[in-house]
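assembly run, all chains below
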Amino acid sequence: MVETAGAALEAIGIVKRFGTLVAVDGVDLELARGEIHALCGENGAGKSTLARILAGALAPSAGRVASDGPVGLVHQHFELVDRLRVWENVVLGREPRRGLRLDAAAARERVRSLAREYALDVDPDAVVESLPVGIAQRVEILRELAREPSTLVLDEPTAVLAPREIDALFATLRSLAARGAAIMVITHKLQEVISHANRVTVMRGGRVVLRAATAETSLDAIARAMVGGDVPALATRRAVTPHAAFAARDLRAGDGAHALRGASFEVRGGEIVGIAGVEGNGQSALCDAIAGVVPYAGEMTLDGEPLRGNPGARTAAGVRTIPQDRQREALVLPWSIARNVALGDHTRPPLRRGWSLDRQACDALATEIVRRFDVRAASIRTSVAALSGGNQQKVVVGRALAHEPRVVIAYQPTRGIDVGAASLVQSRLIEARNAGAAVLLVSFELDELLAVADRILVLYRGAIAGEFVREGFDRARIGALMAGAA
Amino acid sequence: MSRRNAAIFAAVLLAIAAGAMALAGANPLAGFAALLRGALGGERQLSETLVQTTALLFPSLAVAFAFRAGLFNIGAEGQLIVGGLFAGLAGAALVAPGWIAIPVILLAGAAGGAIWGGIAGALRARFGGNEVIATLMLNIVAALLANYLVVGPFHAPAATGPETAELPVSSWLPVLIPGTRLTISLLLALALAGALSFMFARTVFGYALQAAGEAPQAAARAGIDLRRTALVALTLSGAIAGFGGATLVAGVLHRFNVALSPGYGFIAIAVALVGGLDPLWIVLAAFAFGILQSGSLTMQALAHVPKDVVGFVEGLAILGLSARRIANPREESA
Amino acid sequence: MAELLDFFQLALVKATPLIFAALAGVICERSGILNIALEGGLTVGAFTGAAVSFETGNPLLGLIAGMLAGALLCGLLGVAATRFGVDQIVAGIGLNMLAAGATAFAVVVLFGAPGATPEVHALGSAGETALIAVAVVAALALQLGFDRTPWGLRLRACGENPQAVLSAGLDPRRIRVLATLAGGAIAGLGGVFLSLGELDLYSDGMTAGRGFIALAAVIFGRWTPLGAAGAALAFGALSALQFVLQRSGVPSELMQALPYLAALAALTGIVGKARAPAADGVSL
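ok done. output:
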């Protein structure tokens, strides 16, 4: 217990090492009662690690955290038990009891009163797996609020929300702060920092590189502090005459809240079509249907020919994907780079020779990808598990673009990688477009789409809610459509 | 496991075994000496150890084959028994020259094992049924089936035990060293280990199989059909174990008996893990476990250490080796 | 009528160790530990019960010792799975072999001859009946405990998402270890029923795959205590039927195989799809 006037939480000299890696390298931080404090930084800057240390979920290697009450942590990937009810999730670990029994009535009432108090409307008896992601986040927040925290830390809480929901979330946070709690929001969306936070701390390489009141700094200054210099420039988009390439008609896939409910569109060769939308509006189903890994209804054509068959046949036809989860859906982690680059092309020449894999051809391809994509690895024999996230993604993108693809489906290709790698990936996608490929880019970062896409389609509840060409990009209008505005 | 940890682990196992021997009132040194003498003390002993090595090698390769594809085949025991059963029935019924009969008997064994493994594979492929539970259940069903058939319909008229009629001498596997039970099945097992090693390292089939095992989702996106892989891998794994059962019938017992296997299919899991799922290392591991199998009776007779200490130590070995990751968390069962 | 009563009684006797083992399986699996070592738990419980009863002349002490032995064996799995991140299935197989080897070894060392212990003081028919009642009551009590108590909620959460349990301020490792200890004790009690309830000695292999039938019962019972106990009761009845049908020409092996075949059928989902706990078998 520290009775520093106004400070809800104070962290001094926090260091966290994982083996030889220093994730957090001597951070001091003070959170004041009543403030919303933004913590910014690139992936790998140490933000999430710091958050877990502040919340007591992780012990620091050195330094200490003093707090005048519990610290709640709202995780980026909600830590809820999907098959339990809302009230069960909220009271887990602090169950109201009557004798030996769990007092379910009291628990439900507790959830209802909390929900009323903070205007976070949710049905206590709903099973979590049936809830849309925005509501599930409320459950996670309620669970933390039930502990009456003096500090609430939220890790990337807006990543899964539409602009309108984001405003509602910050309204809730502001009212919490007004009651004397300290709020820390980890985010990489700088616009949010400027509009909603009182103060901002920027981390890079495990250290604090900027502390400022948001009123006294600028978006540009924060961005430069995060990257440690200027943001790298993208490849130039060349004028290409677009030609018909990929078309989908009334495409339907998946079920439940995240289904794709009838999308018709085309992606021409030589253009990048961005899919804007909040996560969970059918993007996964869309990409998976095109890749052929889920059942779907509707038609797809490639250069006028029907596109069908299993994922292997589609790859062979020139439809290349950069999946959502590179570690599970794209790479075989224990394998070397050279062995990974063959995945998906192992059934055909030039990588296949007779019954065997042509090792020399694999090595040559891997060497080429490592060179062109600046993959930082000891050698092509290095296991991809040993690479950083950014370098893993470079291997995945390199493989997808290596065989002159006709269609490229990229799902959040820059998620979770550093700015340098992200810029390289975006540039290579633009170059693929310049070379005539039809590129479909799904991103939850509107800024990325505005920078890279030739056209933007807004996906809302599994259907296309609007279309914008580059000359007519309208951030406000796109944001409104993402949130379901008619 | 690093070399150092492996050494520590082996030392701990030896110490526990020594402790158990002492507990049994025996001198541990005498126990180990008797074990080694029984396994390696002469041409007869060494050949018998190689018989046990061979018997372990087939199911161990079968287990490793499935594990490498990310499939938990813990049913090598049942597949071996059904393979032996098929081989025994075919062998007893077949009157033909050896060069016809022997391949037919061995293939019948492989077919039996393939069916038994294939059931688990089909359950997994068609319904997503957990192959651990399936192979576990099939082990017991195999034993019951074998028992029913050789006590009932196929019981050899002259036999006292639960066994089929003896194979004609011409159908016996050729012996490598006259006067021993060591047959060409050892060479077949070694050839199989070599072939599997090549398959995993070089071929497209092995590549796809291991991709499915290590990263099923990435494999599926690369056009590798996971259902088909499950069916094929468990069927072939079963075929290998069943082939092994057939070599025991045609090479060692010369008939099928319900006591064909003293748990080779389970010990095989330890062998496969000790060998790091690498076919060539598995050969060495099988030899080590072969020593335990063949020396244990001598140890019991000479040093008065109950042979069951071997099973106990093998169990400990499996427990200790379970820290190695095998497969990805599986799809749910029924 | 009397024959029918006899049949029911026999079915209950045959079902009781299965119920204990199945309940043990449910507890472990709902916490996230796929416990293949139930068979080993039965084995060490049966052996230890008989051995301690032989040494002390007191079958109740045997019962307690048997439960402890089961808890120890399965607890080993819990510790291995939560502290050393082992593969639960491989570890479970190892524990089964260890249990079989250690008991066979101990029979020789302690009693001088391989195969079986001498006859020991058993629990008697009153004790047998009491244990049958305990099995039924335990199933009911566990069901209530799962649905209505904080511990039940925590256990269920642990088998679904241990990470969420951790962020709720609880220790999922501890919950899992406790679950394997409790489950192991119950499996051990099932073993004690075999050696000191139904019989009055331990013999090698007397568990005869009941631990595996219990795994089948867990699936059939959709991972609920009452469901699993119900399935175990049905399998026990099948086993009793085998004695009734002995002379009717139905092969006894077929009757013995029915629970296993039923488990295989359950894997096809024809008995209705039920989902295993999401984190069942996933080590921490």
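The longest strand of chain A covers residues 7-18.

Chain A touches chain C through 23 residues (CB under 8 Å).

not gonna interpret more than that til we talk
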